[in-house]
Amino acid sequence: MELRRSRVIAAAILLGLLGAIVPIAAMAYISWTIAVEKQQDNLERVAEQTIMRAGRTFEDAKLALDSLAYPRLAPCSPQHIARMRVIAFNTPSVAEVGYIENGRLKCTSWGVEEGEVDKAPIDYVTPDGLEVTTHVQPAASMGNPVMALHYGGYSVLMDPARFVDILVEDDISLALANQDGLLISKLNSPDPALVETLSSGEPRKGMTSSSFYAVARDRGLIAIAMEPRANLAAKLREEQFLLLPVGAFIAIFIVGIVAWLSRKRLSPLGELSIAVRKREFIVHYQPIVELKTGTCIGAEALVRWQRPDGSLVRPDLFIPLAEESGLILPITDQVIEAIIAELGALLRMDRSLHVAVNLSAADVTSGRALDVLEDRLAGTEIESRQIWLEATERGFIDIDAARATLARARERGHAVAIDDFGTGYSSLQYLQGLPMDALKIDKSFIDTIGRNSATSSVTSHIIEMAKTLDLHIVAEGVETEEQADYLKARDVNFGQGWLFSKPLPAPDFIRYYRNAKASREDGRGNIRGVAA
Ligand code: C2E
Ligand code: CA
Ligand code: CA
């Protein structure tokens, strides 16, 4: 039983640890995935915004270039130059407009071009026909390198920053490329290697060992937003702040449940119900003898709880708890089953032998044990009169139900004995009304025999009372010859006690029974071995 306890405790500790770790680990993992998802969603939004912004900037440039074609004005005339200036001014993304003839820049929105300036070499052409030069050093405004878009004899110079002109946090970097991976514009110096792999690949979002990224594609453009993974820390803390307490709460809850269950499991009631489930109850049989002849006429079945380590628990230690909890009912069943399995053969062989079963108050009130008996006895050829039923006055709480059960028991052929007779408060009249066959005088009265004349007079009175009822009488707890003689002298027919035998395991009882029978037959001059 210690083994079982320590196994339960070990299992409880293991479950408790798991119950504490798993929810917290799960919440840590969930906070991480939520933080990552939020981070990536944000990057995705930035990439979408970037691609929209870039697309709109291209559209603006295309509109500007389209509107330069009409009305036709004399090339590089003051009106022509004024018109170019108006368009450059009205299109925020366009810094300068140039007019090109035969591959040479003739004039710009600033005025007539004096030097020999070639049209910038074209890097690629957009799906709607715009020729793009990604890197141009403007002739007129000597600023940063710019981008040039060419269409229908005109070029517009644009600040590439215009394409990625959206509001982002400092640690988010952006790259805008065409579908061949040619970098058009960037913000906050994105990692060039990552830009290269992403612009050729398919993924929409993801992470590398150092960065999160998101990619958006539209009309031949690719926008890539990325940010260092270190940025996750702040978001992660935010999520953990919310979720870790939830995990801790669940952990506490689970640990509490485990503690509660294991305490319940380790409680006497928990152990008893496991013992019932594991059928740990065995039966010992105490011989009942005819006092005059010493013949063994029966046995009382006394239950014992055999713990897994082999130790036996006395019934007084668990029967009260079993009765209180209702577990006595399955225990009674197990006793009945044990009797049939262990003594069935002996009972079939010797029809004068009986076995007495102790009924609990619940068994007496419900009468359920009778149905179990009928069911288990069916087909065994054990006669129901060979099974006696012992009921104590404690079982007569509901006297009408008890009377009905006892009457039904006798109808089925069982003999009914009132156990612990003399210890209750019931009057003789009260007992007279009950259907019964035998009385068992309680050990406490037998104990007084030969000790004290004052109390032994009570004992003789009890015996007289039992005789008045005209029933079989069994004296319990007979330990001395003196007691046996006293009982014999007062015509008590049966006795049970250590003087004859202690309660025995079935094989020992069978041996006892055969030996007693054989020696008796020997004594009468019969041949030894007939009964054995
Ligand atoms: P009980 O029905 O009065 O059983 C007699 C008790 O007296 C047994 O104790 C028996 O071992 C003991 N006994 C018999 N002769 C002597 C003797 O000479 N000297 C002494 N000192 N004791 C003797 P046990 O086996 O410990 O059972 C105790 C009680 O537990 C029983 O008292 C009975 O009330 C209950 N019990 C036992 N088995 C069952 C069962 O299967 N079902 C139910 N409901 N109760 C049971
Ligand atoms: Ca009894
Ligand atoms: Ca008794």
Question: Could you explain the architecture of this structure?
Answer:
Helix content is 47%, strand content 23%. By secondary structure, it is an alpha+beta fold. α7 (328-349) runs parallel beside α9. The longest helix is centred in the first third of the chain and has 68 residues, at 2-69. The chain starts with a helix and ends in a 9-residue tail after the last helix. One calcium ion (CA) is lined by residues 300, 358, 390, 419.
Secondary-structure blueprint:
Layout: H1 2-69, H2 78-90, E1 94-101, E2 104-108, E3 111-118, E4 124-125, E5 131-136, E6 146-151, E7 154-158, E8 173-178, E9 183-187, H3 192-200, E10 205-207, E11 211-218, E12 221-228, H4 232-266, H5 268-277, E13 281-290, E14 296-306, E15 312-313, H6 315-325, H7 328-349, E16 354-358, H8 361-366, H9 368-377, E17 387-392, H10 399-411, E18 415-421, H11 428-432, E19 438-441, H12 443-447, H13 453-468, E20 472-476, H14 481-489, E21 494-496, E22 504-505, H15 506-523
Parallel strand pairs: 14-16, 16-17, 17-18, 18-19, 19-20, 20-21
Antiparallel strand pairs: 1-2, 1-7, 2-3, 4-5, 5-6, 6-7, 8-9, 8-12, 10-11, 11-12, 13-14, 13-21, 13-22, 14-15
Helix pairs in contact: 1-4, 4-5, 7-9
Looking at the structure, the CATH topology of the largest domain is: TIM Barrel
Major β-sheet, in short?
Answer: 8 strands, mixed, barrel
The separation of the N and C termini measures 39 Å
Chemical compounds bound to the protein: ligand C2E, calcium ion
Structural class category: alpha+beta
Q: Globular, elongated, flat, extended or rod-shaped: what is the shape?
A: rod-shaped
CATH superfamily of the largest domain: EAL domain
By CATH, the architecture of the largest domain is named Alpha-Beta Barrel
Number of helices: 15
Q: What gyration radius follows from the Cα positions, in whole Å?
A: 52 Å
The number of E-state strands comes to: 22
Weakly predicted, low-confidence segments: 525-532
CATH class of the largest domain: Alpha Beta
Enzyme class: hydrolase
Subcellular location: Cell membrane
Protein name: cyclic-guanylate-specific phosphodiesterase
GO molecular function: cyclic-guanylate-specific phosphodiesterase activity
